[in-house]
Prior knowledge:
Blueprint: H1 2-18, E1 22-23, H2 27-32, E2 42-49, E3 52-60, E4 81-88, E5 91-95, H3 98-105, H4 111-120, H5 130-133, E6 134-138, E7 142-152, E8 157-167, E9 173-185, H6 194-203
Amino acid sequence: MKNIFLLIFSTFGVLIFSQEKKNFTNVQNILKALQPNERLDSWTLVYNQYSRDEVLKTTGKEKNYMPQFSGFKLSNDDEGYYYIAKSAGGKISYITDTEQLRKFIGTVDNGEEAAVIGILEGYFMDEEFEDLAGNYYADAQHFYVELGKVTSKECPFEKTHFMLTVNKKTGTITNVKDNGEYFEVYSKTCANNPRMQNYKKELEPYVPPKKARSKKKRR
């Protein structure tokens, strides 16, 4: 009986631990956590902004690589681009687009790689609201990643958060759950701006109610 109790307790503890959410901090740290699907002598993650290279991470012995004049982006707001210089068997090659990046990841080893899979499908990691659109938890077969997506650029500007189920072995998104809107902004020109509608009501001139006429009694 005691052994059964311990087994149930330990299993329950594993389930709780496995579903503990972990937040991402930013896109650069997500990329630093990548674990390539191939054996490499070394690989270097580089960020280029305003024609200046910044080495973000190097694994193994850094090799001399040629600066790249194009790369991949993981955010529409990013002014620069990333590329990876990898070395295998004394030969250096480069990852400069999202398709090459996807092959570089291969099987999904951690939550950061699962996030990249989602980002490549049009979602984004929201650094301002990571509790809603920048976190993950895992079980034995899947990563569950919460990311955001701009769902309306009209009035209002709107962001929605989604739960993506990413298969660890295949690296595919097997399910998407819409968790609803979490951010919206109305501009002054929005016809459906509730604040503007209330403001217009305040500007309407006051019209006093008409007094009912009293009927005079005939003599």
